[in-house]
Write a structure and sequence with these properties.
144 residues; 6 strands; 33% strand; binds zinc ion
């Protein structure tokens, strides 16, 4: 059976390689992530207790929520914001919804361990724009 939980989070970012000025400027979104897990219903009656699943999602979002997330190539802005005391983080590649979804999938996979199968994460950049990331999309290397 599948179970899904949603969490909202806030991130400011910019897409430094974008030719679109609106994307190139530092700006924020309230994002949402839908996390879908799958597994057998246990003796406790749960695929996974929503309270526990919520904790895992919150842990995966730690370091993202209310932060500035930049691409790892955005060195000047990163250094400038750091000097100003801004809590700024980087991810590999541009901080697009797609790359954020990959990072969240990998973090959740680590948080969940073998307790349940992580089917997918859906990252909503707004009410009408989302990306979906599964295991293959996240390029998780198992046993290696
Ligand atoms: Zn944006």
């Amino acid at each position: 059976m599948k179970a899904m939980i949603s969490e909202k989070f806030s991130i400011a970012h910019r897409l430094s390689s974008s030719m679109n000025n609106r994307q190139n400027n530092l700006h924020g979104h309230t994002w949402r992530v839908d996390v879908v897990v799958e597994g057998p219903v246990g003796r406790d009656g749960f695929v996974m207790d929503f309270v526990l699943l919520k904790e895992k999602v919150k842990a995966a979002l730690d370091g993202f929520d209310r932060k500035v997330i930049l691409g790892n190539n955005d060195v000047l802005l990163f250094e400038g914001l750091k000097k100003l005391g801004v809590d700024v983080r980087t991810i590999e590649g541009e901080p697009t919804a797609e790359n954020l979804a990959k990072v969240l999938y990998r973090r959740l996979e680590r948080e969940l361990g073998k307790s349940v199968y992580l089917e997918k994460v859906v990252v909503w950049r707004s009410d009408n724009a989302w990306v979906e990331c599964n295991e293959a999309d996240a390029e998780i290397v198992k046993g290696g």
